[in-house]
Amino acid sequence: MHATSPAGDGRHLRSIPPARLALINRIARIRLPRGPHAAARVSAEFLRTYYRGVGEEDLAARTPQALAHAAHCHLELGRRRTPGQSLVRVFNPDPERDGVSSWRAKDLCRSVEARFGVAYSENGMLRLLHDLDLSWQKARPIPPEADLKAQARFKKNSPA
Questions:
Q1: Do 5 and 73 belong to one domain?
Q2: Mean pLDDT throughout 23-38?
Q3: Is 71:63 a contact under the CB 8 Å cutoff?
């Protein structure tokens, strides 16, 4: 059995390889700008604890600012979740990594199987999402108000 120590005394960081600790300390020095969620400010100690088990290659793949922001968002998401509530946040896919620019059921099936080794049919995936109280929502762009002067200039300069 391991002895526990208060997070603030730094003992939990002693077994971390120096290269990883240096990356974590760079993240911990980030001060996120104040915004609407100022109450959920993350401390340097929280960031050190949050990232202590993450490998150096994963920490080096993102900027310290992005990692500090991700931890801040995760903490805020956790503070909003009530006991017994599922609260999941899914980000837009990365076209280079995921091969798609927006998720469809068949894309989710392929990604889940590749990442977790679990195969679902499209109907099975949609049923699973429904059973988890997740709804399919897709952002729709809102076109800007028409610029009548720009349209007139375009018509005037276009060949008839």
A1: yes
A2: 76
A3: no
pLDDT exceeds cutoff 70 at 130: yes
Q: How far apart are CA 84 and CA 55, in angstroms?
A: 31
Task: Decide if 98 contacts 111 (C-beta within 8 A).
Answer: yes
Alpha-carbon span 129 to 123, nearest angstrom: 10
**Span 13-34, average pLDDT:** 85
For 125, the token pair is 């995936």
Band of pLDDT at residue 24, cut at 50, 70 and 90: very high
Does residue 119 fall inside a structural domain?
yes
Range of the domain at 60: 1-89
d(CA 160, CA 26): 61
